[in-house]
Sequence to fold (222 residues):
Amino acid sequence: MAKANYGIDAPTVLRNLIIGAVACYLLAVLMVPAFFGPALGLTFAVLMMLWSSLYAKFKARDSLLNGIPWRGDERVLDVGCGHGLMLIGAAKRLKSGRATGIDIWQNVDQAGNSADATRRNAEIEGVSVDIQDGDARKIPFADETFDVVVSSLALHNIYDAKEREQALSEIARVTKHGGYAGIIDIRHNYAPIFERLGYAIVRKTWSPMFAMSTRTMIARKG
Fold:
C-alpha cells in the first residue's frame, strides 16, 4: 500500500551536517582527538534534523490544528504547503469546507518538493485539496478569503526581514475577521507582528525541533 511522503526538510543542511560529522570523526581518529567533540555535536544535530522531519513535525502539526475550533465548513489556506503536511491535515478536519495550498516549490527547502508530490500525498491520504503556485509575499487571493490560514516551516526561507513581514501582512490580509492564523517556524517570533496586525494570540509554544528554536503560534483576527 502506498504511503504518503512528506519529505526531508532542509536536505542540503542535513547533507552538510553529515559531511561535517564524518570529516570530524576522520580527523579525530587520524590526527587530532579534539575533533571528537565537534563530531559528536554534529551527530546530535543530524539526529535532531531526522527526528524533526520524520516524527516531531507531525506532532507539531497535530497540536496546532487541534488548537483551532473547527466547524468543518472553513475555507483554509496553507502558505508554503510543500508536500502538504499541514494542508492535508487541515483538509481531514473539513466536511463542506475546502483547503488550498500555495508554494514556490524549492527543492532546497524540502527534498522532492513539487505540486505533483503534494497531489499524490492528498490522493494517498484520501482528501481533495486545491494546489497552485503562489508566493507568500504576494498571496494570489482577495482580502478576507479564508477562515483559517496556516504555514509550517516555510516563512523562515524568506531571508529578508521586510519581505518576511510582508508575507505575514499578506496572511493577515487574506484572513477573515474572526478567523485564525496558525504558524510553525524556526528562528523567528511572529506573535508581536500579528498583535500589531490586530490579532489576539491564542497559543504560543516552543520546541527544539531541527536543533533550533521552533515556535508554534495560533492567533485570532479581531
